[in-house]
Amino acid sequence: MIRELAGHQLVPPEKDFRWRGGEITRLEGFTDAVFAFAVTLLVVSLEVPHTFEELLVAMKGFFAFAICFTILTQVWFFHYKFSRRYGLQTVYTIILNAALIFVVLFYVYPLKFLFTLAVGGLSGGRTMPVEQLTHMVRNTHELSLLWLIYSAGVIAVYGLFALLYHYAYKLRSALELNEYETLCTRNAIIHFSALASVGIIVAIAALVLPSNLVGYAGLLFCLNAIWGWVAGSMMGKQQRMVLERMKAKSAAQS
User: In the chain, where are the structural domains located?
Assistant: First the structure.
């Protein structure tokens, strides 16, 4: 098996973006371990169910766990992609990386709490008794604080990625980024800054909306999908144009 894999990359690099990260560093290894531990904390129960009823209770938390797992995996992939693209191991990137994994660990329980509550509410109490749902958040003030806490985590995570890409952009000459790679780096700064801004919008909404509408503040996170579509269209077109120009220039020189 090892011989068959020799010389092959299990995860292929980006087609038009040169990956400067080589072997997995201690920083990446530590980060991977922290993300693995964070996923462990999401598990409904670390104890094996002793009865079928306990198993059903554990299985009812599947959908909330799946959502949280997906979010953590996405954040991990963002970090993996940044590390592969630039391979930076400076003091500044270590500090930002440490801040990122601190935020991830700190917000595991708020993340799990929020989506357990959301899935329970949307399912009409099928995944969790209604009485238990009412005890999780007793009034609109607590619900507003919950959105503020979650929004703060979103702002912190995406804000840190924006700072990481901004740092790589500042080092574009030292990293020998070409025109396309420089544009992708700049667009990543804009993209993550916009995602962090959505968190700010939700936090403001949680503060200013009347009590009967506070529960809907989180729907503003749907702006992420709208932004993703707009950014994918505009930035994608811009990047394709740069690639075509670079290929045409390379063909002319050859």
Answer: 17-136, 139-249
